[in-house]
Amino acid sequence: MVRIALDAMGGDHAPLAPVAGAVRAARAWGYEVQLVGREADIRPALRDQGDLSGVEHLLQIVQAPEVIEMSEHPASAVRSKRHSSMAVGVELVKNGGADGFVSAGNTGGVLATALLGLRRIEGITSERPALAAQVPTLKGFCVLLDVGANVDVKPEWLAQFALMGSLYAEIVLGRTRPSVATLSNGEEEGKGNALLVEAIPLIRALPIHYVGNVEGKDITAGVVDVVVVDGFAGNVFLKGAEGVVATMTELIRQELTRNPLSSLLALGLRPAFRSIRRRLSYEEVGGVPLLGVNGVCIVAHGRSTPLAMQNAIREAARCAELHLVPRIRERLISL
Amino acid sequence: MVRIALDAMGGDHAPLAPVAGAVRAARAWGYEVQLVGREADIRPALRDQGDLSGVEHLLQIVQAPEVIEMSEHPASAVRSKRHSSMAVGVELVKNGGADGFVSAGNTGGVLATALLGLRRIEGITSERPALAAQVPTLKGFCVLLDVGANVDVKPEWLAQFALMGSLYAEIVLGRTRPSVATLSNGEEEGKGNALLVEAIPLIRALPIHYVGNVEGKDITAGVVDVVVVDGFAGNVFLKGAEGVVATMTELIRQELTRNPLSSLLALGLRPAFRSIRRRLSYEEVGGVPLLGVNGVCIVAHGRSTPLAMQNAIREAARCAELHLVPRIRERLISL
To answer: What is the phi-psi region of residue B123: left when phi exceeds 0, alpha when psi lies from -120 to 50, beta otherwise?
Structure first.
């Protein structure tokens, strides 16, 4: 059975949310979870989970004395804290003690730790691994990468993102011949910045189903399986979309509570609104895989709830079970 | 009274929507509107507007035999069609026959025509003028520029966008000491791509109220008055936000019509939903000013309705009445 190392100290609600997520993942799917962090913090959080009979043997505490805080500068924190929960968790993946690592901590810290500990897959040349988010769409999910790890991108890197995104959609999300598009400021051939204009011929040469440019509005419409973009614009899109959902939710709340009648009607629609919120929630996916390193690493949202952590653990387990990393490696070698 | 040249041939619903918008603007605010385009097309559209008594003297047809189509390649169309409705409209602004120009046609065509006909304001060095969109927020509107005219941007240009955006917010939107931010992939000092890292010291040196970086989610939250970004990421954000609004609207429609009870409750909430749609609609602003050229130019949405055209005409009139262009020129000289 798959074994996942979990950063028990990462995220705004650590250690409680990671520990609760681990218990839920063990109970739901029988995954083994290594809770990595300060034992003195993890033990009480585990006790808070109530009766652990049936899953206790699946949960193991792995001591790590240091914590990389959310507010720390990633590069220097990673250099100075060699025994952080992130470093120990990544080391477990490296030496085969775990099949994947999950953290809701400082994203820059996870990126730097993973790169340092696991190194790049042979052939990958980007400065950092790519963050591949699943964006909710009308038809399901669209894989968007990079959403923030590499803000100044070379054409060759964008092509590697396209290849890895396509493999991820095929292997982990089960899409047959996933459609891959580049994100641009217009659909027409030739639209785009200098980076795109140079990258597109490289992407066209890859053994993937590349369909051309799409615009920002096409992502949530769900017209393609994978969208490739530099980490700067990808981050602007992802956080922008989060912001629009939050703003629209608030506008709806204001309008629907404007008078007693609308408040009453809205009350009856609560299940419908709950269902919409669930479809747009990051909790359902849980985490974003870091593509390009020699091992499974999932970055979860800093605000992760137990449900989000549980789903991030499942995401890591699926990537491991389906051999995502070796299959990316093979494909890169065969190019 | 202000006189606006209107591209009667521009947009998906031309000439009907521009002509109807002109009639509405003349009736509502007494603006003079020059309908620029093929007289044989404009005359029947004018007749369709019914009784024009009281505004007939405000509406004038200016003959232009050629039309730049939505699908045409802007640069070559502008070169080959010297007598297009865009060229004639921009010429009216140049020679003082009109105080501003409005078009819902091919955006690239308007940009190229305006640049060719009006040239840059002294001191402006960007490849093209910047498109300054007003994004609806929880608190009103946020000016976002550039949203697509310049996809490969130099640090100096970004600083010019910041200055022009600040002046636009102050002069046209009436904001006192508008707050200006750069859009980045994180709020922390030092976050951003190479462009931003180089541009920020230039922006800090300007006589504007610069507040640092914001992220995508902060735009619709309304935390600042003006957000500056390169035209590639700005376009990705703007179209992405449009897409999220459309997707969420569709998800809500699906959920609220899932069963007879929710359909019935939703029916009672129609006025509330209409009000939300209105707050998020581009029609209320109507058009996006093109900042950096020697004259008032407003690009309206290709799908513009008569209401959107009417509001775009008002936007042009306000920019002209408030002397936006001369005031940008003065500020640039005084730097």
So the answer is: left
A180 and A56 part of one domain: no
- Determine the Cα–Cα distance for residues B133 and B143; give it in Å rounded to an integer: 6
Same domain? A87 vs A108: yes
With an 8 Å Cβ cutoff, is A183 touching chain B?
yes
Q: List all residues of chain B from 249 to 268 with a beta carbon under 8 Å from chain A.
A: 250-252, 255-256, 258, 261-262, 265-266, 268
Boundaries of domain holding A39: 1-124+292-326
With contact defined as beta carbons under 8 Å apart, do A239 and A231 qualify?
no
Which residues of B, range 261-300, sit inside 8 Å of A by Cβ?
A: 261-262, 265-266, 268-269, 272-273, 275-276, 279-280
CATH number at B245 reads 3.40.718.10
Question: Using CB atoms, which residue from A137, A151, A242 is nearest to B247?
Answer: A137
Q: State which residue of chain B sits closest to A222, comparing Cα positions.
A: B247
B107-157: pLDDT as tens digits:
999 999 999 999 999 999 999 999 999 999 999 999 999 999 999 999 999
Tokens (6 digits) for A294: 């020699």
- Those residues of chain B that have pLDDT short of 50 are none
Contacts of A70 (CB under 8 A, 6+ apart): A12, A105, A106, A302
Residue B306: which residues within 8 A CB-CB, separation 6 or more? B16, B17, B20, B21, B24
Q: Among partner residues A232, A240, A251, which is closest to B241 by beta-carbon distance? A: A240
CA dist., res. A99 & res. A86, Å (int): 15
**Statement to judge: residues B226 and B103 lie in one domain:** no
Residues A113-152 have pLDDT tens digits of 999 999 999 999 999 999 999 999 999 999 999 999 999 9
Q: What is the ipTM of this complex?
A: 0.93
